[in-house]
Every structure is written in C-alpha cells, then in structure tokens.
Amino acid sequence: MSFQSSDRIKHICLVSTPWPLFKRPSIQLGSLKSFLNKERKSIRVDTAHIYLNVAYAVGYDVYQAISKRTWLAESVYAALLYPERSDAIERFFRKQAYRNTVLRSVDFQELVRQAKDTADAAIQQICQHGVGMVGFSVCLCQLTSSLYAARQIKNTSPDILTLFGGATISNPFCRKYLDVFSDIDLVVNGEGELPLLGLLEHLEKFGSIETAHTIDGVVTQGSSHKETHVFSQLPHLERLKTPDYDDYFKTLNTFSPDKRFFPTLPVESSRGCWWKGEAFKKQTKGCAFCNLNLQWAGYRRRASARVVHDVDVLTDRHQTLSIAFMDNVLPAKSSDALFSDLSRLNKDLQMFSEIRASTPLKTLGKMRSAGMIEVQVGIEALSSNLLKKMNKGTTAIQNIAIMKNCEALGVQNVSNLMLHFPGSDEVDVMETMQTLAFAMPFRPLKPVNFWLGLGSPVWQNPTQFHVQSISNHPHYRILFPEYITEKNVPFSIQAYRGDLLRQKKLWKPVERKIQTWNRFYADLH
C-alpha cells in the first residue's frame, strides 16, 4: 500500500476495543501517545478507548461480568464478524454464562446490537477526522473486537492503514495474522514505542509500507522469518513520559452524571519480569505456566523518582487517588525507596499491585503505609513440591507468610490457587491439603484451573510436563469459521492432551476444602 506525497500520514489514532477493565484507561495507549507526542511533534496522535463507550452502552454490571471471562468476551464480536455463525455462538455464550446471575437474563442479540452500534459510531468518528493509520492494542479478550473494528475501518476508509500489536499478537507467529486476516496491514511484534516511531518516520519519508519490513519490530507481508523475530525496545525506560489519559477522561465526561465514576490510573515502574530474567541465566524460563512477558526482552525498571512524578501528576490532573501498578513484578531492589517516596506525597492513595510471595514484611509495610490496599500475590500453589515443578522460586511457607502478613497489615490479598497443573501428583495434593489447615485464618485463595498459554515454558517443553498433542483451544472453532482455524494460526489459549481427567479427579478434595475455607473465613469476619 502506498500514499501520494501530499497524503503522508500526519494524524494517527491508537485504539483499545472491548473488553479490558472499563474503570482503567489503557496504559498502552496512554504511554504510546505521550511518547510519540514527545518524539514526533509533527504528527497528531489521538486515542480511542472504545471499550469505555461499550461499557456505558451495555451497562457496567453486564460489561464487567463479560470482561472477566475470555470466552464470553470473544463471543460478542465473533457474532458480528461471522453472522452466519451467530446461532452457534449465542448457544456457546449462554452455556458459558449460565452460572452468572448478571448475564443469565441478558438478551444476546440485543447485547450484540449495542456492541455493534457503539463500536460503529466510534469508528465513524475516527474515519471522519483524516486519520491515516489506526493502531490496535490487542490484549486478552480483545481479539475479535479488534478484528471487527479493523474490518469496519477498511469498509469505511480502505486507505487507512491498520496496525495490530499488544500481548495477544506479540509472539513468533505474529506474521500468520497478516496471512489470515486481510484487514490487518501491519503487525508490531514486541514493545510498541520504537517500532511505531520508526514506522511513522518511514511513512513520512517514503509514503509506503512496501519496505516497512526493514523496520525492527514491524512485521509485514514481506517480512522474512528472521525479521519476524526481531524485537526493538527502549534500552532503558527513562525516555518514557507520563502516560496521557486525557482522551479517556474526555469520553467519561460526556456520560450522564449518574454514570460517571472515579477511574483507577495505571502506572508502571518496570517492564518484563526479573524472575524470568534471573531464571534464564540458569537455563530455565521463569514460571512454567506464564506467557505474560512474550513482548519484552529482559527486565527494565524506571527510576523511583519518575514513577513518583507520574503518580503525583496523574492524581492532580485527573482528581482521583486510585492507582494500579501494571508491572508483572515490582522491582525487588528499589521498592522500599519507591513506596517511601510515595508516602511523602502526603496523598490518601489507594493502590493495587501484583507482588511475589518473597516480598519482605518490611517492604509490604512500606507499601501499606503508602496506600497499598490490595495485592495479587503470585502464590499459585501451597505445595513446595508443586511450586518447584512450576519453577516459582518460592515455597509453601513463604506463601503462608505473605498471606499472614497481608492479613496483619490490612492488605486485601486477591490471589489464585492453580489446580490441575500438568504433572502434579498425589504428593502435591497431600501437601496442599496439609498446608490448607494452616491457611484457614487468612483470606481464601481463588481456585483457577490451569490453562495452556501460547509461548509459556509448558508450551515450549511439553514432554517435561506430561503434555501431548498441543493445538488451538477447541472453542476457537466455535468463534471462527473452518477456513481460519485450518490455517494453523496459533491463538493465545491452547489445548492439549495429557492427564486431564486424572488431574480433575486428583484435585477434587482440594476444591471441597476451599469451599470450607470460604465459609470459615466468612464466619470469622
């Protein structure tokens, strides 16, 4: 695709479609916008949080219930992408939703209509403002909605370039999306800042994407296998500016007063995972089930002063004190200083973060003093034997200790207990049952079933974990037509053969014990 010299891109729009958490602006969009505004002042950058408009249209309770379940979320726009499959998709949606009291009575066809009308209106607005390129941040629960929006953009304005990036797309197989989905022109593999900057400079100079495959991190139909695997990321994060969330708040302020709320502001103090980084040196690859860091190479952290500056500026600008750290893992060496400095802001912050079970009590205390009211700890198991299989680098006693420390400090711990991990055995279950007896006074963990993520260490080394015959999850065959599923596009959620039935039977006693745990904790409180 090429452009006349007078039409070279001067205006782009970055888009986030349903179904992220609606009470948070997109940090992907906010960070990219502020970075490009700083680095490329000649180009206008807008952002569109289409998911916020859809949440308003369908109702916050309905939106939130859908956004918590991947298959529910992907169903809605799949029915719009492939209307000939609408009946089967509706049956699938109802089966997935039948236990949810909010969704049980939802009219699926009306839900789809509302999602369509709202997305179409936002897309029309984008296309009417002379935009030359639209970039989609595609993360969990956003694949079908992004594909639908890209199709509508191409139907309305075929000359607009469409670019896909984000955690769902960033993997060694990203080139296949271009082969299968004709409405996507370009893909960014990995972090977005430098590839986007390079692409805009390239388009400004040449007005064509014919040689865009030469830009590190940008994948086109002309990209070689080697070029597809190239990352281009900031060597350090000090070039990042404070995220720009103004467009999100402009949209929120158009809502009726009874539908407005105080959003949670996302910030980041690091990218990647230092545990994966350290583990890599020992010839392992971080937590065995995790595929959250495929878009990063290594681990980088920002200076504490920059993070504190972001929190201070954002809370002043948007008049809300709720903060969510988006780090996959907080920096181990600088967290004490970071939260001590946040305390000195003298603001009544209310913060959330994901932390490791090895977080010391001293550090957790500093976090609480700064305003950390909720954490998700990477607990995953209460068996040291199983934690070793998962390569968590922690022990059952550390998990019990962090649960106790959260309880003592008044920090809400919303963490998971993973069931059915492939290769787990009777010893793991017995140790879990024994440990649960000591965990009963603490906030219960949420049981979640293991799912196989594309690119995770389990996926990469299946025989080590008793996994066989890996393929796309069969639910994709409901959402997508056969001509797509047969193209061997590796989607983010994978299925496998192995000891699944044995695992389900094996972990039944733990599931029953967790039910008892929930009742016991509720009675205590």
Structure description:
This protein is α/β, with parallel strands linked by helices and 525 residues long. It is built from 23 helices and 18 strands. The strands form five sheets. The protein has a six-stranded mixed β-sheet with strand order 2-1-3-4-5-6, sandwiched between helices. A five-stranded parallel β-sheet has the order 7-10-11-12-13. Helix 13 runs parallel beside helix 14 and helix 15 runs parallel beside helix 17. The N terminus is likely disordered.
Main attributes?
five-stranded parallel β-sheet; 44% helix; six-stranded mixed β-sheet; alpha/beta; single chain
Secondary-structure topology with pairs:
Blueprint (H helix, E strand, L loop, with lengths): L10 E6 L10 H13 L4 E6 H9 L1 H8 L2 H12 L4 H12 L10 H20 L5 E5 L5 H14 L4 E5 L9 H6 L5 E3 L4 H14 L11 E2 L5 H4 L17 H7 L12 E3 L2 E2 L2 H8 L18 E2 L2 H15 L3 E4 L9 H9 L6 E6 L5 H10 L1 E6 L6 H6 L6 H14 L2 E2 L2 E4 L6 H14 L6 E4 L2 E2 L3 H4 L7 E5 L3 H4 L2 H4 L7 E5 L2 H7 L1 H17 L1
Parallel strand pairs: 1-2, 1-3, 3-4, 4-5, 7-10, 10-11, 11-12, 12-13, 14-15
Antiparallel strand pairs: 5-6, 8-9, 16-18, 17-18
Helix pairs in contact: 2-3, 2-6, 4-5, 4-6, 4-7, 6-7, 13-14, 14-15, 15-17, 18-23
